[in-house]
Amino acid sequence: MALDVLHLTHQFPPESRGGSETYAFELAQRQRAQGLGVEVLTGSKHWRERVAIETDVVEGLTVHRLHRDDQYFDHHAKMWHPGIERRFAAFLAERRPRLVHLHHWIRLTCNLVELCARAGVPAVVTLHDYYTSCPRVFRRRVGDEACRRQLSAASCRDCVPRYGYEPDRELDAGIELYRDHYRAELSLASAVLVAVGSTADLLAATTGVPRSRYAVLPLGYRPRFGGLPPLAPPAAGAPLRFAFWGGVGRHKGVDVLLRAFRRVHAARPGRAELHVLGDFESPAFEAEIRALAAGLPLTLHGPFGAAELHAAAPHVGVFPSTCLETFGLVLDECFELGLPCVTSDLGALPERVGGAGLRTRAGDDADLATAMLRFVDEPGLWVELRAQRPPATPGMDAHADALLAIYERARTAPPPPPFCAPVPADRRIDFLQLQRETALSRAMPQPGPR
Hints:
Elements: E1 5-9, H1 19-33, E2 38-42, E3 52-58, E4 61-67, H2 82-95, E5 100-102, H3 112-119, E6 123-126, H4 153-156, H5 168-188, E7 191-194, H6 197-207, E8 214-216, E9 240-245, H7 254-267, E10 272-277, H8 283-293, E11 298-302, H9 306-312, E12 316-319, H10 329-336, E13 341-344, H11 348-353, E14 357-360, H12 365-377, H13 379-386, H14 396-412, H15 425-443
Parallel strand pairs: 1-2, 1-5, 2-4, 5-6, 6-7, 7-8, 9-10, 9-12, 10-11, 12-13, 13-14
Antiparallel strand pairs: 3-4
Helix pairs in contact: 1-14, 2-3, 3-5, 5-15, 7-8, 7-12, 12-13
């Protein structure tokens, strides 16, 4: 079968099951059901000694995992990888997709759309986060401040991840190269999709990419819990079960949640329990969370699916992100389960919740604890908020149909005029040289080799 659509993403099941990869997986499955030839090329969190593609089949879907051969490859200053560039260009020549749908660049390389353009393959981009506008990915500054600054060396130098020995000129060059790369990528894309308008507004305001280049298309949702019985409401006298599920990372506010829950437990012992479902972002963060969980009525479930989430039988979903979320499929799951929720006040989450949840100040564990205690102390609140759940998100069938029309325009209509030029290859090489010289000056004894 001809390869109609190649999905590109940073990670993919079964290695990871966060929101964006779950969406890409379900979309690819739906497109296969529509008769399209669909495959996935994904990055991986596991490196190899050499750049390599490993191919397997995940629930009938062909998935190619492209492994980098370097360490710390999520670092913004390592966004370009010449070996990945060559291997991806060869892959395009081998597989010859009619269209590429790009979901993320992390763990791959920063010029994927440019490589598609060289190969004559139209590319549609869905932005699942603020990566194109933030070297920290989630527009959350050190100290957890949500960031609405311009992407620039002046704005970002004191916040970007660093190894610790880089001079300011290297940091500035890396930030400016990062900015210009992703402007160039979006300039070359046939379409750039976001799930809510506020995401496009902030991206345009902080990157200089014209607002008109972003199109709003809400993500489709495939119901998860069909055939399972409705969850029981909270029972009088029984502990109220709060739950967080998704990627267990600092940007999701999980550490804030545990500190808040300790307050709840201290104020109302035995009246509430907490369930956390999902993979940890790192061993270090896992150790931190396990330390925060000590002595609490809390279950860390680890990796999960719909059945495991349903079996935990939560009463209230809690999603205290400290980053500016761009959609939040967990809300669709929460509402399908018939639950109200608590969210932070950032990004798309409060925008999408409407009257079905309580909003709390991002990063404020005391404010979060106050909201959680309201559910414990006010039994009528659960019923009141549950009744205000918003209408269901359009299903994956309708979403896939809308994408088909976008794909067709991308394949048949001239691409929109570029608003900036691609980044010259020499500039990437110059930056690698600068990085090398800085590292060597750190590693070598003065005055250098003899």
